[in-house]
Structures are given as C-alpha cells and as structure tokens.
Amino acid sequence: MTTSLPFVLANHGFALNFNVFETNLINLVLVIALLVYFLKGFLGGILERRREAILADLKDAEERLVTASKALEEGQRELAQAKSTAEKILAEAKQRADLIREDGEKRTIEEMARIKQDANANLNAEAARVIEALRAETARTAIDKALAALPKRLNDAKRAELIDRSIEALG
C-alpha cells in the first residue's frame, strides 16, 4: 500500500512516502531509542564531565581575570607611585643642582674677593717696601751729603763742641 501525497514544486513532482515498513521508520526509531537508552548514561557522563570541565575552566578564567585585574590595579598604583617618586627625585636633583651652582658661584665670588684682597695687601706691602726703600735711600743720600759737607763747615773747635754735646746727650 503506497500512499503518497503529491507536492508540486516548479513543475516537478515530489512525494512523501508514509509507508512505515517501506521507509524502515520503525527500525530507525527502535535503533535510536536503544542508543538513547544504553548510551544515555555514557553520553550523559561524558557531557556532564565536559560541562564540569567547562564550568571549572570558566571559574578559573574568572579567578584569573580577578587576579589580573587586581595585579593591573596594583601595577597602575605602583606606576603612579614610581612616577611620583621620579618627579620628586627630579625636583630634588634640580634643587640640589641649583644649590651646588649657587654655592659654586658664592665660592667663586669669595675666592675672587680674597684674591683681590691679597693683591691689594701685596700691593700695599710692596708700596710700603718701596716707600721705606726710598726713605732709606733719601736718608743715606742726605747723610752722605751732610758728611761730605760737614768737614768743610766744621773746624776743630766746632768738632770738639759737637763731640762734647754728643757725649752729654748719651751720658
């Protein structure tokens, strides 16, 4: 008994065969039912283990995400702290460099003042030495002239009188 339901598409005939024995539908349903019955535990166990593994992987991934997020936050915080520390060190270095430069300038000015003072002292000492040398030379010249002129001006009586006065002044 062949029952067909014609279904026409684009001038071609198409028919469905509803004969259960001819289409082997009972055998197919029976095989599928037996497979489901016998393999349900096996496939169910495999699927359950697979589901648990996937859930464990998801949980592990979530934990790693949380850990990575915390590590990222900590890293960002440490980076910000490192930047702050670096800026602080840079500011301190600039301040120290300015202080060193100012100290160097101050020392240079002090050294220049000391050198100038030493030069002035040397100049004054040299001027005093030259003045003293000129005085000594002038005195020597005056004494030489006086000694040269003295014998012409002094006679024996004046010489004796000069010697006596000198002795009285000493004595």
Give the helix proportion (percent range): over 70%
Count of β-strands? 2
- The gyration radius over C-alpha positions equals 64 Å
List segments where confidence is low: pLDDT < 50 over at least 5 consecutive residues: 1-11
- Largest sheet geometry: 2 strands, antiparallel
Count of spatially separate domains: 1
pLDDT averaged over residues: 84
Distance between the termini: 185 Å
Q: Count of DSSP helices?
A: 3
Question: Could you say which overall geometry the principal axes of the C-alpha atoms support?
Answer: rod-shaped
Structural class: mainly alpha
What order do the helices and strands follow? EEHHH
Strand content: 5-15%
Question: How would you classify the quaternary structure?
Answer: single chain
Strand order of the largest sheet: 1-2
Subcellular location: Cellular thylakoid membrane
Keywords: ATP synthesis, CF(0), Hydrogen ion transport, Ion transport, Membrane, Thylakoid, Transmembrane, Transmembrane helix, Transport
Membrane topology: Single-pass membrane protein
Transmembrane segments: 26-46
